[in-house]
Amino acid sequence: MNKARSNPLNAAAMHAALILYTLIALFPVFVILINSFKTRKAIFREPLALPNADSFSLIGYETVLKQGDFFLYFQNSFIVTVASLFFILLFGAMAAFALSEYRFKGNTLMGLYLALGIMIPIRIGTVAILEMMVATGLVNTLWALILVYTAQGLPLAVFILSEFMRGVSDDLKNAGRIDGLSEYAIFFKLALPLVRPAMATVAVFNMIPIWNDLWFPLILAPAEEVKTLTLGSQVFIGQFVTNWNAVLSALSMAIIPVLILYVIFSRQLIRGITSGAVK
Amino acid sequence: MTALTLKNVNKSFGDVHVLKDINIDIEDGEFVVFVGPSGCGKSTLLRVIAGLEDASSGEVRIGDDLVNTTPPSKRGIAMVFQSYALYPHLNVRKNMTLALKQEKQPKTVIDERVAEASRMLDLEGYLDRYPSELSGGQRQRVAIGRAIVRHPKLFLFDEPLSNLDAALRMNTRIEIANLHAQLSASMIYVTHDQTEAMTLADKIVVLRDGRVEQVGSPMELYNNPANQFVAGFLGSPAMNFLPADQVGESGDHIVGIRPEDLVVEGDGPLQAQVRHVEELGGDTNIVADLSGTSVTIRQFGQFAVRPGETVSLAAPESRRYRFDGAGQRIG
Ligand SMILES: Nc1ncnc2c1ncn2[C@@H]1O[C@H](COP(=O)(O)OP(=O)(O)OP(=O)(O)O)[C@@H](O)[C@H]1O
Ligand SMILES: [Mg+2]
């Protein structure tokens, strides 16, 4: 243990700062949660009060659940997010491994080209993407969203992961080669477990924007049976009247799956850090 | 029979010519040490033998087979890395068995070999531990165990002891020597530590700048170095090099005298001023100034002399080495 960490004063200051930050970060979530359990009047009268016997109401949740397709929306969002993350991590890690491990002509150029996507927002290409999706008949399918999100997430994933892949010891990979592992086995059995913390980071970075995105679902998959949660919740936000109970309840429920995914990834993150000691 | 033959092996990385026309033969059961200063290409040569790098030209033969295009796992070799390179997410047993499983060896053979190796290396209590739970010396032994279980024709060691402390290094050195005696396999061992080279080797290959400078048994190289580089590289403290006229010879060659061959004698012909004394108990090393050139004198036993004093030295004619301007031995 280093000195700074074991000094009680430093530790206290550090914890105070972290707790303060946690409070600030969690406050909006807290407000959404408590208000989702209140009547409409109570929400507007005292937005910061906890629900009590008087103001408690489940009307929001009832509306949302009665809205029939809510679970379908849920499922769609979940499939899109998980599938996109899977492809981003798989292809990102493979590209990163190739770029950092193999010497071939145009290696650096390829790396730069792949990283270019970080600087160019994918939404600029929306019209072209829509045309492509129409041409391939993928409009109003979940695949349209998965493909777009994978493309959107890959540049940063390749960039971050190739930095970490370069850190995987050459000797370790060579030991694998001498032990008869194929290049695929070296990638899956040696390199991937060692860059797991970086993979978790990439996953967390990509997960939230995909889960919350409204733009591409609205354009590429607006049909009822492929609506995502964010798009589905829009029915409660009208031009003139907004059903705040329903919106807040929908939002509260939308947090849960992200939370679960986050817990999974962050556990990976921690396990990766503690078991990663190579030397 | 020969275990390894290298014929005109060259290796370049782009414009950098790292290995230049390497020719080496290694007999079955021989313990061969590659020594040379840092950056001279020892690791690269080992990696070419292992198949981790392709030779740019030349032939690599293991046993009787030309293996230039054979993948590392099919060459019948095993390698121990300087950084150990243990798989961090596998325990000791799985680290040792991975290669055997990859070769699809039956389970009984695998168990038997692991038992054999862990008995040899005192690892029986550690088979279920992960590398991060082992000390440096234990990790080193696991790395060696991982090589042993494969029953290779040829062991390759790349500076296996350089991460260990001095005491452990000596123990492990002895262990490796014992291992070689027990296994009677051919071993190639890379180091830049000349003590390791002298103590372990049947045959030493001295490398410099990607070239073989000299090949021979430790005592051959010590007693009969082919050039000034080999003479200066082997032996500790290193050989003294003096211009001929300073030691009473005529000519413009360089004279090499080992520290133990400089004798302090009351009526010696050379006068040197003592600058520094290292008393090691068993030995005394005296650093002195001989007409402007610093020389090291090694006296056996304890020897009372102080910095600032003048000592008279003699250097027997028969114990002198002579080198020309290009460093080649001329006498
Ligand atoms: N992949 C590579 N690309 C370019 N040059 C390389 C590469 N690998 C090694 N070299 C060069 O080859 C030379 C020899 O390297 P090598 O690692 O074989 O040295 P070494 O004798 O093992 O040194 P040390 O004792 O420090 O381990 C060095 O000058 C190094 O810079
Ligand atoms: Mg080296």
Chain-averaged pLDDT of chain A: 86
CATH class of the largest domain in chain A: Mainly Alpha
Shape of chain B: globular
Query: What does the radius of gyration of chain A come to?
Result: 23 Å
By secondary-structure content and strand pairing, the structural class of chain A works out as mainly alpha
CATH superfamily of the largest domain in chain B: P-loop containing nucleotide triphosphate hydrolases
Sum up the overall morphology of chain A in one term. globular
Largest sheet of chain A: none
Q: Name the average pLDDT of chain B.
A: 92
Name the pair of protein chains with the most residues at their interface, and give those residue counts: A-B, 19 and 27 residues
SSE order of chain A = HHHHHHHHHHHHHH
Question: What is this structure's SSE topology?
Answer:
The complex is a heterodimer of chains A (about 280) and B (about 325).
Chain A: H1 3-6, H2 8-36, H3 40-45, H4 59-66, H5 70-101, H6 107-116, H7 126-136, H8 142-167, H9 170-178, H10 183-194, H11 196-212, H12 215-220, H13 229-233, H14 244-275
Chain B: E1 2-13, E2 16-27, E3 31-35, H1 42-50, E4 57-62, E5 65-66, E6 77-80, H2 92-102, H3 107-120, H4 136-148, E7 154-158, H5 166-183, E8 186-191, H6 194-200, E9 203-208, E10 211-216, H7 218-223, H8 228-233, E11 240-243, E12 254-257, E13 263-264, E14 270-279, E15 283-290, E16 293-300, E17 310-314, E18 321-323
Parallel strand pairs in B: 3-8, 3-9, 6-7, 7-8
Antiparallel strand pairs in B: 1-2, 1-4, 4-5, 9-10, 11-12, 12-18, 13-17, 14-15, 14-17, 15-16
Helix pairs in contact in B: 2-4, 3-4
The complex binds adenosine-5'-triphosphate (ATP) and magnesium ion.
